[in-house]
Amino acid sequence: MRRQISGSGHPSRLSHRRFSLPNSKLFPIVLRMENYQSSLDAAFHSLADPTRRAVISRLTKGPAPVKELAEPFAMGLPAFMKHLRVLEKDGLISSEKIGRVRTCRVNSERLTAAETWLCEQRRLWQAGTDRLADYVETQMSRSIENAE
User: Fold this and answer.
1) Which of 2, 32, 103, 106 could form a disulfide with 59 if both were Cys (CB 3.0 to 4.6 A apart)?
2) What is the predicted pLDDT for the residue at 25?
3) How many C-beta neighbours within 10 Å does residue 69 have?
4) E strands along 8-130, which residues?
5) What is the pTM of this model?
6) What is the C-alpha to C-alpha distance for residues 22 and 6, in angstroms, rounded to an integer?
C-alpha cells in the first residue's frame, strides 16, 4: 500500500493527491517532522514563561540545586517546582537527586533546536527586508532620474 503526503502543509494529514512514497520511506520522514515540530512546540511552550526563561538562563552557566534556582523568585517552592516539572517534561532540563539535593542541568540539544529554528526565521525575514530595501533604492533612483 502506498500513502501520499498532501500539499496542505501538515505532515500528518495523508491524502492521495500529491507525493507518493512507499510506507517504509514515508513513515520515518513523517515521524521525524512530527517529532521535530512537537519538540519545538514543547520548547517554546516552556520558554513562554519568564520564570522558566530565567531558570534556563541560570542553568546555561552550569548545573544548580533547586534551592539555589528558587531563591530569586517570590513564590513558594511548590509553585517553583511546577515550573521545573514543565521544563523537565518538555525536555529543556534534566534533574538528578543525590541524597536530599536535586540538581538541575540544561539540555542544550533542545535549546539548540529552538535556536536553529529562530535563526532560520531570522534569515528569512532579513532576506525579505534586504529585497525590500533593494526595491526601495531602485524605485528612488528611478524617480530621481525621471525628475532630472
Assistant:
1) 106
2) 54
3) 22
4) 14-15, 19-22, 64-65, 93-98, 101-106
5) 0.60
6) 14
